[in-house]
Design goal:
elongated; 30% helix; alpha/beta; six-stranded parallel beta sheet; 247 residues; binds NADP nicotinamide-adenine-dinucleotide phosphate
Length: 247
């Protein structure tokens, strides 16, 4: 059996990344978590934390060499494409093992009324006229919905978004985990008749889908973007086992 990794770099920004850092730290494996720095008050994981971009694949490759990293776990959000591409190129250049930790997407259940969209632009076009929309696709990319001045949007995100935003909207700054009771109350209070979401997956934000099913509301679900071919696990345990093997 090979020695444990000297240092594992976890590319984070997700609940799973935070959990993995905690497990690695508890197992005595040196871990540094990297956050993009988008969230004003991030929930910090155990172990070392660094914040901010690396400066593309070259910057990341240099960082890996400089900090004696032998294994990288890309546990970023399923819709964070650039950092994942950067990780592939940097790990290849630096000769460092790379694992992708990605939670499974949500799957439709009996009673769900889902409509799939390939991206945010398609989701925006798919909204029928004059709807009251719960928009939960996050702070980035809201410009795709800005031209829909017929519809009203309850825009929920963690931090204040930048304009442009749709003309008729209310901003709700909040972050999960969310409960079914809370989501039902929100939907009822704002007379929501459509939900728009990315297929982020996971348990922390799925209550909106349960609420939509209970109220018979349609949901526009944005498909995950294509990803580079990388060894992938779907659980924190799987990533932990991999990290123990690589060094
Ligand atoms: P992105 O488009 O893939 O990344 C843009 C740039 O931000 C990257 O090129 C990189 O800069 C920097 N970056 C991203 N993640 C980083 C990380 N973990 N550590 C250091 N630098 C990072 O990603 P994004 O969609 O803006 O997402 C940014 C972060 O928010 C990610 O950590 C992701 O897990 C989290 N997040 C994203 C979403 C979403 O829907 N996209 C939702 C929830 C959380 P350099 O090229 O300079 O290295």
């Amino acid at each position: 059996m090979r020695a444990a990794a000297r240092t594992v770099l976890v590319l984070g920004g997700t609940a799973e990344a935070r959990e993995l850092a905690g497990e690695l730290h508890a197992a005595g494996i040196a871990v540094t978590s990297s956050l993009a720095g988008r969230v004003a008050r991030p929930r910090l994981p155990a172990g070392e934390v660094r914040i901010g971009g690396f400066g593309g694949p070259e910057g990341l490759a240099a960082w890996l060499a400089e900090h004696g990293v032998d294994a990288v776990v890309d546990a970023t959000h399923p819709f964070a494409q650039r950092i994942s591409a950067s990780a592939v190129a940097a790990c290849e250049a630096a000769g460092v093992a790379l694992l992708r930790l990605e939670r499974p997407g949500w799957t439709q259940r009996a009673g769900d009324r889902w409509l799939w969209a390939d991206d945010l632009d398609e989701a925006a076009r798919a909204i029928p006229a004059d709807r009251r929309v719960l928009l939960t696709t996050g702070r980035q990319g809201l410009a795709a919905f800005a031209h829909r001045d017929d519809a009203w949007f309850l825009v929920r995100c963690v931090d204040e978004p930048q304009p442009p935003l749709p003309a008729k909207h209310e901003l709700l700054l909040d972050r999960g985990p969310y409960t079914l009771a809370g989501e039902l109350a929100l939907v009822d209070e704002h007379r929501i008749d459509l939900v728009v979401t990315k297929n982020s997956g996971g348990i922390h934000t799925q209550a909106k889908l349960d609420a939509a099913r209970e109220r018979g509301l349609p949901v526009i679900v944005v498909r995950r973007p294509p990803r580079p071919a990388v060894e992938t696990v779907t659980t924190v345990d799987g990533a932990l086992r991999w990290a123990r093997r690589h060094g």
